[in-house]
Amino acid sequence: MSFAKLDQLGRKLEALEHALAILGADEATHMAIGGGEKRAQAVATLAGMHHRQATAPEIADWMGAAESEALDTDQQAALREFKRQYTNMTCLPAEFVERLTVARMRCEQLWRDLRAKNDWAGFLPALEGVIALVREEAAMRADALKLQPYDALMEQYDPGNRAADIAPVFDELKRFLKGFVPEALEVQAARLGKAPLKPLSGSYPVERQRELGLAMMAAVGFDLTHGSLSVSHHPFCGGVPTDVRITTRYKTTDFLSSLMGVLHETGHALYEQNLPQDWAHWPLGKARGMAVHESQSLFVEKQFGRNPAFWDWGLPLVEQHLGEHWSKADILPHVHMVEPGLIRVDADEVTYPLHVILRFELEQELVGGQLSPVDLPEAWDAKMRAYLGLSTIDNPADGPMQDVHWPGAAFGYFPSYTLGAMMAAQQWAALKQQHPAVDEQIARGDFETVNGWRRDNIWSQGSRYSTPELLERATGEKLNARYFIEHLKQRYGA
Amino acid sequence: MSFAKLDQLGRKLEALEHALAILGADEATHMAIGGGEKRAQAVATLAGMHHRQATAPEIADWMGAAESEALDTDQQAALREFKRQYTNMTCLPAEFVERLTVARMRCEQLWRDLRAKNDWAGFLPALEGVIALVREEAAMRADALKLQPYDALMEQYDPGNRAADIAPVFDELKRFLKGFVPEALEVQAARLGKAPLKPLSGSYPVERQRELGLAMMAAVGFDLTHGSLSVSHHPFCGGVPTDVRITTRYKTTDFLSSLMGVLHETGHALYEQNLPQDWAHWPLGKARGMAVHESQSLFVEKQFGRNPAFWDWGLPLVEQHLGEHWSKADILPHVHMVEPGLIRVDADEVTYPLHVILRFELEQELVGGQLSPVDLPEAWDAKMRAYLGLSTIDNPADGPMQDVHWPGAAFGYFPSYTLGAMMAAQQWAALKQQHPAVDEQIARGDFETVNGWRRDNIWSQGSRYSTPELLERATGEKLNARYFIEHLKQRYGA
Ligand SMILES: [Zn+2]
Ligand SMILES: [Zn+2]
């Protein structure tokens, strides 16, 4: 029984992944600072064991033999995902992976140091080294997967996503935003002219904010018997599906920054907590990919948390925990603030896609060789001026040096953020079609209809379908920009 | 280079041990309750990987070949401890270990359930099954190690400890305590007749107790950059030497229960934090054994924490953190309270050894076959009446059912507790001989001389010497009861 061998292998890999996930969450939340070096060694050794076990040559034989075994449909799907994982993990020679890892880690370290010094010239050689290796990587992945090089990189993060499908959708969105960003800013200016922003009172004890966050997490569906909320410097969602660790950080001057972050990570957590448990030790049982994951986090952050209906229910909770009264008219301008800026991670939902499209366009050229790293600051600045009217030419730290993705060799990842936002809007439109009263339910703090739809259509599917297939099955349509555009118009338009 | 292979193996095992240690601490402190089942599976799988890697047949060849390699003295010592670990891990057939594990886990579960119901008859068959297997285990270990059966069991916990050496020391202590327990109780009654016990005021906020605990931990030498203090139901010291996790639990009515527990676990932590780092991936770099470990925890709890000099320095700290003034005359009766009782873990330092000696005597007879499990309640009761004047005949829950050790098949472990207490007293006497002013130093909150002595003589030695050798080298004498008896006389006598 070769499938049985794969099944057994899955249980071993799951145990190592469990350890790595909990060690990762622990490192960011509870590890003593002096424990880092030994932790890094232990994690590297365990990751090496995982890689060796997941890429053993006999697995290819098991997969081949399992093809001709009598498998049920779940097992067939599981076999397909075992193959995908194996191909993605074995298509690069070990020697190359080592070189890439060394170059990547060195470039990330340099980046941390030189970004603070705004030193593009010092950083460029290391980035050039990484990009040269990424081009090699893309070629090897393309060869193994029979895909275009950039598609082969994206395939790691979102199986089935292809640049040829995404580019027209991003183009439509970009054309729309060209006119819409100024419109949204005008609308906002007019509104703030009439009623200035209510300031945050500025003294929100951490423990109260934590209780408010936990109350909202539980209400929107986070199972507190299978997960927890801690503090870390960079918020994340980690751990394992039966014990999801989300984190936030608190500013006592601003309860919204932590709260919106908690809602976002709760969205990631809901996906993990509701994955199919019977498949947990198979690649099939994992979340589909980064874009779908981001669609689930952004759904909770935006379709719930920035939805006016949400605050009908949410504001009494805020008052109960923080002792401060807010009206909807006062809170919405805070959660709907639009402000073009240089930094992607600080962007609002209107301008955020432009940051991503800029990177999507540039990184295809970088991987394809049409753009040289040395020309990146000019290319970045040109797009930044065209898309957002801002220049970064004298400020590479807030231009092409602002994100860790490229020094970290993660090309093909950026599209996931905006694909996630579009998918969330498309999912919301589809479920609202079936359940027109969801806003009223949310206004009562009843999230069950929405979560039921998401459980059936997304969470319970694990990795059964490719990213585009999953979306099309859930919403009845291929990915398109229309629903996200409608969403922005309705929330931010004239 | 066969030693190099052992060295490499050590690094792999260290990574798995690191994961298991952190997962273990995490489980008791931060894991979501619903995460337990998957955690148990992951831990079992990782422990299985560790066992398979640590017992691989080729290791025997490497150890054999390493014998004839040019090794320095550290490497020679490391090889000896590799061999000890390998022999202890391979001397039982895998099939037997599985049977023992099943029997042990079932008996532990039954114990949890039936102890609460005081149901000895229901529990007995499971315990009989475990003891039958322990007799087999002892025979197999004895054969592999060329030791007496009970000594072969003790060898797992304290290499070098032999019942023939320990029994006369325990006998001397038992004879002494027969007269001394009544004397200490009389002294105490007379004192309390003159000055009744100052009651605890009973409202000590957890956060204040935590700060007090952290302040004392740091002062007695706990390195807070390489460890932390959390809350768990059962206090423990876990984690890894570079990141030691100690825990406590708080009663808001009584600050001393948590504080004395924190001091005890800090003693364990100091040993771990100060083990030789260069040997961390070798068995040689580990703490010597349970008795030595307990000598280090009890040293901090008793030679520091129940030492009157300690409170000269400690009471202002209590007042600072808890806002409550205590005089030495008021606090000492609390930390020196003597009260014979049925339960070992609740016992004071005067009566505690009698609980251990009772178990040491009975478990030798159980392993040797002179005593049948069915006769245990009578045998226990007889000794309990003889040693402490208390009967458990109608109360097996607080008699032979009170500890998890026997259902858990951990025979040969109990002596470590009292050996630790005696070793701590013997170490204290030896260092005081060299440094007569240590009490004055402690009264000033200066623990450096004491810790320096312990670092040199105990902590930095790792597993270089057997348990009795380590003590003899540190104190110049074999284990004997004299120093512990002197310690009790001085602290509790007339
Ligand atoms: Zn996210
Ligand atoms: Zn202890």
From TrEMBL, chains A, B:
Alphabetically ordered keywords of this record: Carboxypeptidase, Hydrolase, Metal-binding, Metalloprotease, Protease, Zinc
Enzyme type, top EC level: hydrolase
Gene3D superfamilies given in the database record: 1.10.1370.30
UniProt-recorded Gene Ontology molecular function terms: metal ion binding; metallocarboxypeptidase activity
Cofactor notes: Binds 1 zinc ion per subunit.
Cofactor(s) named in the record: Zn(2+)
Active site positions, chain numbering: E265
Domain of life: Bacteria
Organism: Pseudaminobacter salicylatoxidans
Sequence similarity: Belongs to the peptidase M32 family.
Binding site for Zn(2+): H264, H268, E294
Free-text function comment from the UniProt entry: Broad specificity carboxypetidase that releases amino acids sequentially from the C-terminus, including neutral, aromatic, polar and basic residues.
Name this polypeptide is given: Metal-dependent carboxypeptidase
GO biological process: proteolysis
Catalytic activity annotation: Release of a C-terminal amino acid with broad specificity, except for -Pro
Keyword Disulfide bond on entry: no
E.C. number(s) listed in UniProt: 3.4.17.19
Pfam families: Peptidase_M32 (PF02074)
Signal sequence extent: none
